[in-house]
Amino acid sequence: MNLKDYIKSYFQRVGWIPPIINLVCFIAPIVFLQNSSFSEKEKILLYLGIIGFIYLVNYISFIFFLTKKILPEEEIRSKMRKRYRKGDDRMQSYLFPLPLDDENYEIYGRTLTYNPIGGDFYNFLTDPQGNYWIGIGDSVGHGYLAGIFSMMIFQNMSLLVKHNLSPYEVIEQINEDLLKRTEQNPKINPNLYATFLLIKIDKEGNLEHSGLHPSFVIHQKKREKQNHRNRWKICIDYHEFYFKKCTRQK
Length: 250
Fold this sequence. Notes:
The chain is α+β, with helices and mostly antiparallel strands. The protein is 46% helix and 22% strand.
């Protein structure tokens, strides 16, 4: 940032108060000296002294601004934002699932979430019956509040898929749990919501799904060769999320 940008930033942050104070400090002595009994030479010297004093005060305040000795609130907020972003990366590393790749399915490709922490989330799980569960969603807003709300959905999904339920039943129970939590804890924002798509697939490729985020396309391509399994992939628009059945030789 060059000197011009620093000056512009200085006046953007301090507002109109310093210019008004400068104007008052400049006009008031002029009015006083005009009505005083000082000689012309003394008035000129006093004018120059006042101008020099005003310049010195502004110069010192600007130097303090450059060295971050004044207006610390913005600097504190900036440090807090950096600290939060550092924590965001850790939160995703701790909670988001590892890539899925076995003899039946693999994650074909995915994009990064928009924000290091926010509403975007995804989950890959297998249940005791060997079914595969894929959940992808987006909570309203950005930042920690949206991220925590997403993790509430994330946690419920991880628990409920083990109970031999359909995707529709899992989403219904997630909604019931979130509603109950909101009613019992008034501090939780009741206006929070999320889009959520939940997919259940068995090893043979039979698929169930419920919910929407925000569009959902299934593409299936059968092969006649006996040494290959059926090949298909699920495409969830917007996040460019692909889940592909492997085409491994028998």
